Amino acid sequence: MKILLLNGTIVGKKTRTLLDEIDKYIQMLPESHETKIIDLENYELQFVDGRPTDEYNEDMQQLIKEVENANAYVIAAPIFQGSIPGTLKNVFDAVSPLAMRYKPVSIVANGGTLQHHLVIENQLKPILNYFRCMVTPNYVYTHTNHFSTQGELIDEDVRNRLQEMIKVFNQYLQMSQEIELDK
């Protein structure tokens, strides 16, 4: 299966650090999976305005294709001003809702206050439910204190929760393969 690890921001390093850690845990699963980390900062993003996909630049077309062709996702997002980054919302706006249907998704996020975990519940989960994704119930929210001043993950409990999340994610991967859709 092709698992897309999507870093939903163009600034900072903490969400990428989390995705690197998650990638290690996915590689430790009994089944072999192809993973790809997408850092939005590496793409020349365009504002999604409803035009056909082929009218966007090559980077946007490639990004849309990568998202739509993946079999599963781990989405990482910082929380800015009590919300997901506009760059991540822009990606969701570019993707066909049918493309993510019944595909497993796990969520990790990082914020400056403990209350920002509610952004996952009130913004990310509703978007992913609109896409009819199979969202794992155990997301991982991290706080600035879980990282060193250099942006390295230093909290063992967070590592344990990431490992547990990937175990559940793996079960969702297996379930998704059993769903037969009429296309």
UniProtKB/TrEMBL annotation:
InterPro entries linked to this entry: Flavoprotein-like_sf, FMN_Rdtase-like_dom, NAD(P)H-dep_FMN_reductase
Pfam family, one: FMN_red
UniProt keyword annotations, A-Z: Flavoprotein, FMN, Oxidoreductase
NADPH-dependent FMN reductase-like domain residues: 1-143
Enzymatic class: oxidoreductase
Molecular function terms from GO: FMN reductase (NADH) activity
Top-rank lineage group of the source organism: Bacteria
E.C. designation(s): 1.5.1.42
Keyword Lyase among record annotations: no
Annotated protein name in UniProt: NADH-dependent FMN reductase
